[in-house]
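Figure 6 in text form: structure in, sequence out.
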């Protein structure tokens, strides 16, 4: 049941505020993150970890890249993120001092399951973050944290990306507290902001009209470049993946600082550059990349923060999201990119919920 929406993807985009809300429910106690009901970790086990490996595919990998930034900041663990099909074949420093986290919406992705078996065999403590209780992955790991996002029907992952980031952030704050990587004041400030997120997500989804308008202008372009730095880099990757996947338009996601190391050669007036540029600590640097793209005559679409008037003199189109702490910006900035991909695909007459060549869960290697 599409609940009155024309596609499951649009319905699921609209459910994202509720997904963040249900991910947080019962996991925040007295202003602090508490996952002890779901994770029966002893203080000794938690203290024994040195590194944290996160392993996933596709959109789940991008959610993990977002969380890598928060985990590196709020915990003292050595964090690395890998694509499952690579992790399982490389010589990993995985051992009993590793907490290995496997992120998979379906819990049935062949490479993620295989990677878990490798890590487990090497002695790692394995945790699954999945939307499906009873999935193969959930049955094989030591611990599971559920997304509580409800079934996702659209092949393009949207609300589960939101759910994965929510749960990974809860894990980051919880580990930060248990291992003493974060101060109590910082923790309560972040938890407060986390509690505000469902409302801000809803407010952002409600701005759909401006993305439909942007899609009207750009739906016939052949190539797009998506740029971002820091927390916004994985968002650029995810925005490009959404566009490729459902509208079959070529799109590249790049770290903004890497543009001049190659992809800038692609730019001209035919290639729009979508820059994810919230008001954060890397803002000025990303602005300089916008200027570089503008000098090559690329149409500039800036995805920034409400009230950022400076962007007007840099960009041809400005899309904004409400302010949030730098660490939480991906929860908001990804939404206009999902909506943009949706409206481009719709204009191009694509089969949005069932894109060609793709399956909802990739159970083959
Ligand atoms: O079920 P999983 O989270 O393990 O799936 C991983 C990818 O196959 C998945 O995210 C894929 O990239 C989506 N179609 C992206 O929208």
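Output sequence:
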């Amino acid at each position: 049941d599409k609940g009155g929406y024309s596609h499951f993807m649009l319905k699921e985009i609209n459910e994202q505020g509720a997904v963040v809300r249900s991910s947080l429910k019962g996991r925040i106690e007295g202003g602090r993150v508490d996952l002890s009901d779901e994770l029966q970790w002893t203080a000794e086990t938690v203290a024994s970890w040195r590194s944290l490996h996160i392993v996933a595919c596709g959109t789940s990998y991008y959610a993990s890249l977002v969380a890598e930034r928060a985990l590196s900041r709020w915990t003292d663990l050595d964090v690395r993120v890998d694509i499952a099909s690579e992790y399982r074949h490389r010589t990993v420093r995985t051992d009993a001092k590793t907490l290995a986290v496997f992120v998979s919406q379906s819990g049935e992705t062949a490479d993620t399951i295989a990677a878990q078996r490798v890590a487990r065999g090497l002695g790692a403590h394995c945790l699954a973050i999945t939307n499906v209780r009873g999935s193969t992955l959930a049955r094989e790991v030591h611990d599971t944290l559920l997304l509580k996002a409800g079934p996702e029907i659209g092949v393009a992952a949207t609300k589960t990306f939101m759910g994965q980031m929510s749960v990974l952030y809860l894990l980051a704050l919880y580990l930060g507290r248990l291992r003493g990587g974060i101060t109590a004041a910082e923790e309560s400030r972040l938890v407060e902001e986390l509690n505000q997120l469902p409302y801000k997500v809803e407010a952002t989804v409600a701005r759909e009209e401006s993305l439909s308008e942007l899609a009207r202008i750009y739906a016939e372009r052949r190539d797009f470049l998506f740029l971002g730095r820091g927390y916004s880099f994985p968002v650029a990757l995810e925005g490009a993946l959404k566009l490729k996947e459902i509208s079959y338009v070529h799109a590249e996601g790049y770290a903004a600082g890497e543009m001049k190391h190659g992809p800038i050669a692609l730019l001209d007036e035919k290639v729009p550059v979508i820059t994810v540029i919230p008001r954060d600590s890397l803002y000025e640097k990303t602005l300089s990349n916008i200027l570089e793209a503008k000098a090559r005559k690329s149409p500039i679409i800036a995805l920034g923060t409400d009230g950022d008037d400076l962007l007007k003199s840099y960009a041809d189109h400005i899309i904004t999201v409400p302010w949030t702490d730098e660490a939480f910006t991906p929860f908001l900035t990804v939404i206009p990119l999902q909506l943009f991909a949706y409206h481009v695909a719709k204009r191009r007459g694509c089969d949005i919920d069932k894109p060609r060549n793709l399956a909802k869960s990739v159970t083959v290697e």
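Caption detail: The pocket of 5-amino-5-deoxy-1-O-phosphono-D-mannitol is lined by residues 57-60, 104-106, 109, 112, 155-157, 245, 358, 361-362 (CB under 6 Å).
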